[in-house]
Amino acid sequence: AQSVTQLDSHVSVSEGTPVLLRCNYSSSYSPSLFWYVQHPNKGLQLLLKYTSAATLVKGINGFEAEFKKSETSFHLTKPSAHMSDAAEYFCVVSVRGYGGATNKLIFGTGTLLAVQP
Amino acid sequence: ETGVTQSPTHLIKTRGQQVTLRCSSQSGHNTVSWYQQALGQGPQFIFQYYREEENGRGNFPPRFSGLQFPNYSSELNVNALELDDSALYLCASSLLGQGQETQYFGPGTRLLVL
After folding, report:
1. Which candidate in A38, A60, A102 is best for mutational testing of the B interface (most B CBs within 10 A)?
2. B40 or B114, higher pLDDT
3. What are the φ/ψ torsions at residue B84 (nearest 5 degrees)?
4. Residue A44 has what pLDDT?
5. What pLDDT, on a 0 to 100 scale, did the predictor assign at position B98?
6. pLDDT of A90 above 90
7. Do residues B67 and B76 lie in contact, with contact meaning Cβ atoms separated by under 8 Å?
8. Per-residue pLDDT tens digits for B62-84
């Protein structure tokens, strides 16, 4: 079965320092993986996606993630945190249903990123 | 902005009542998925609609039902509301059948059941 595990429920960084949000996945086939961000009282915004092309994926707002099959990881990074990055981040795997006709998203439990001034 | 809209934004109901939530998909998309996000948790898949038919369902009871219309908009109906149904309900639209799996989310409807 496909699943994702976010290794940290809370991460706190100082403004201007690097961000690392960790995610491990489990999948019986080549997965499609995503990172979504949710600001307080808002819906989900797509940050980036991996769909078996380049293993280093660049997203919006300076975020990127690297797909590492050997480590079954898909960690999210950003070189320099900004106050506006404070939000909850979800690592997500797309699961195909029977015959590939359905795709549903399986979410991790989320990582709450705090950015200190 | 994803182009996915949901209404209403907030709703308060009492236990046992019924509720209908609405979602308009992004232009060009043919699939709508619904998710429930309880407070402090990640979203959970309820079901997906494609070509006006249910196309997959998560672990939710039959009192959660839906519709998709010819213009690809969708409704989520919940009967016999329970306190635990209080949550943010998110819909997401996508283009199924074209090798694109990305789901784009609306802002959500926050439901409070008293």
Report:
1. A102
2. B114
3. -70, -5
4. 93
5. 62
6. yes
7. no
8. 999 999 999 889 999 999 999 99
**Count of A-B CB contacts under 8 Å:** 60
8 Å CB contact of A43 and B94:
no
* B45: CB partners within 8 A, 6+ apart: A104, A105, A106, B33, B34, B35, B56, B58
* DSSP calls for B64-99: EEEEE-TTS-EEEEE-S--GGG-EEEEEEEE-TTTT
Q: How far apart are CA B92 and CA B76, in angstroms?
A: 12
Kindly report the number of other CB atoms within 10 A of residue B110's CB atom: 17
Q: Would you call B105 and A101 a contact, using CB atoms and an 8 Å cutoff?
A: no
| CB contacts, 8 Å: A42 with chain B | 107-108
| Cross-chain Cβ contact A43/B107 below 8 Å | yes
Q: Are the C-beta atoms of B77 and B20 separated by less than 8 Å? A: yes
Please report, to the nearest 10 degrees, the dihedral formed by the alpha carbons of residues B1, B7, B10, B11 taken in order. -160
pLDDT for residue A24: 97
What is d(CA B100, CA B104) in angstroms, rounded to the nearest whole number?
11
Buried/exposed code over B53-71 (b: 16+ C-beta within 10 A; e: otherwise):
eebbbbebeeebbbbbeee
